[in-house]
Amino acid sequence: MLKPLATATRELVNLDGLWLFGLDGTLGPEPWKSRLETRLEAAVPASYNDLFAEQKIRDHVGLVWYQRTVRVPRGWSDQRIVLRFDAATHAAAVYVDDTLVAEHVGGYTPFEADLTGLIAPGTEFRLTVAVDNRLTNITIPPGKLTVGADGQERQTYFHDFYNYAGLARSVWLYSTPRSHLTDITVTTDVVDGGTGLVSYRLATSEPAPASMRLIDETGNTVATGEGHSGTLRVEDAVLWRPGAAYLYRLEVEIHDGWHVVDAYELPVGIRTVAVQGEQFLINGEPFYFTGFGKHEDTAIRGKGHDNAYLVHDFRLLDWTGANSFRTSHYPYAEEVIEFADRHGIVVIDETAAVGLNLAVEAGLTGQPPRPTFSPETINDQTQAAHAQHLRELIDRDKNHPSVVMWCVANEPSSNEDGAREYFEPLIKLTRELDPTRPVTTTAVIFATSENDRLADLVDVVSLNRYYGWYVATGDLETAEKLLEADLRGWAAKHGKPIMMSEYGADTIAGLHSVLDTPWTEEFQAGFLAMNHRVFDRIPSFVGEHVWNFADFGTGPAIHRVDGNKKGIFTRDRRPKTAAFALRERWTGLHGRKPGSITAQNGQHQTTAPDFTQEPALSTPAGAQRS
């Protein structure tokens, strides 16, 4: 699925703005069949939860309805007309006038509806969208629904961030020619001391000749090609590098004789990614991750995409010396990944598979733990939904040079029975969909080097560890010993690159103490310094992602006061003391450790994808799934 783009053959109309809005049950039995009976309006893109002053809207469980009128440009005669949603959290049904045109499950990836023949250029139509925020044991992320004494549904979810919902990303109406490009897949390699190889595969709605040009940043054509698949060769290629992005432009056309039928362009960064021994390599050079786990989270907007915050957050990443981040715990808006492409920030791209660990549920709710993997909890249907999330994520982000690794899940219960049977087919599927990037999952603190069942399946061991906070709280001397023993255990057993995908301590901005007192700014800085001393003693260590970039909203649990406070910045992006300490460390590291933004040219032969094979989800022979 190609992102909507205005080209010589395509046009698009942005449908963001204020939409009519209402809760299900307050709008009549079939709300899509007429103008919504409501005086409420909601902003798009934005989560709806914090837009209003009514508790019943924020706490609503189930469907909400959005509606607006759309005028189709009159010049779109003889064109294919498509409606696209960049995301709808967590499921959606879309109606054009009285007709259901699309349904989608999964809150962070795009979906479309072809409206050709249903609407006429120059006319208006009524666009109505039902968005469902409910999570169950067979959704990604999972959750649990119960019914209260008042007969209303109650939602429990197993992750520590607020369940923001709605139309948090843009909505588009766009046109293409009837005969058109449907997909482009690009992979890159570097050979012979600096020659770039750009391999491509095109998909079209019907057979048609195709041609392409690769253009550098000065506007010069550096390579041309014909056909639906092939490889372009770029002599003395300028590589895409962390901190020094360089993007070529691939211009693709399909033809009908001498006539251009459809045209599309795609930014291309030539670079290689690989894991070799205990090193993570970008362009054949060792890379050391510095950065954060982040969230799409701001006041009022919730998870609504905001370009002002996008720019500001990336400037703060640069200020701290960060070279990377993980899209915890779901795919971010594609504009974020595109910005990373243009500015040389490295991305670990993660699915929405957070909460596949019912031990965490027990800790959050105080209930007895349930088995994570069972027919009644995380099961075959969950796995199928998870596989679909992986397909949609990789389909959307496969061409972005900033994305260097796929994260299949955050903190799954990898120490429990059933974990390997659940995850091994998903990790295999990820590699089949994209054999060019390494794969990881992040390990929860309950999963040790002795009881974990997944680390041998992944390329990088990513650990979430909170020694000194959740374990040995406030005792940094003991925490340092526990952390080092833990990391050395993983290093000795697996011989793979290890990175800290989460480490952090809740901190109230403005709270100070001369003692090692949790929640103070001084403790947060000391906590991070303790972790860094240990990281620097582990030879196979390849990166550190602090949890979290900024404070973020959470659910109503009593152990959170106004959200999670592990941010290095406050929710409105004011720095805490630890931000300055991180800046000093990371700007210094980039002169000493792998991953410097000034790294020199390197080579590495990547594995070329086999475009003739269709990925499939399968359970290994003999495996029993619980």
* Total of domains: 3
How many helices in DSSP terms? 9
**Which structural class do the helices and strands define?**
alpha/beta
CATH structural fold name of the largest domain: TIM Barrel
Strand content: 25-35%
Name the average pLDDT: 92
Silhouette: globular
Instruction: Let me know the number of strands.
Output: 30
| Alpha carbon gap, first and last residue | 34 Å
Query: Low-confidence parts lasting 5 or more residues at pLDDT below 50?
Result: 595-626
Name the strands of the widest sheet in spatial order. 23-24-25-26-27-28-29-30
- Rg, rounded, reads 24 Å
Q: What is the CATH H-level superfamily of the largest domain?
A: Glycosidases
Give a summary of the structure in a few sentences.
With 626 residues, this protein is of the alpha/beta class. It has 3 domains: 11-177, Sandwich (Jelly Rolls); 181-271, Immunoglobulins (Immunoglobulin-like); 285-589, TIM Barrel (Alpha-Beta Barrel), CATH 3.20.20.
Task: Describe this protein's structure.
Its EC number is 3.2.1.31. This is Beta-glucuronidase. InterPro entries: Beta-gal/glucu_dom_sf, Galactose-bd-like_sf, GH, Glyco_hydro_2, Glyco_hydro_2_cat, Glyco_hydro_2_CS, Glyco_hydro_2_N, Ig-like_fold. The chain is an alpha/beta fold and 626 residues long. It folds into three domains: 167 residues, Galactose-binding domain-like (Jelly Rolls); 91 residues, Immunoglobulin-like; 305 residues, Glycosidases (TIM Barrel), CATH 3.20.20.80. It contains nine helices and 30 strands. The strands form seven sheets. Strands 23-24-25-26-27-28-29-30 form an eight-stranded parallel β-barrel, surrounded by five helices. Strands 3-2-4-9-6-7 form a six-stranded antiparallel sheet, with no helix packed on it. The protein has a four-stranded antiparallel sheet with strand order 1-12-5-8, with no helix packed on it. Strand 29, helix 8 and strand 30 form a beta-alpha-beta unit. Helix 5 packs parallel to helix 6, helix 7 runs parallel beside helix 8 and helix 8 runs parallel beside helix 9.
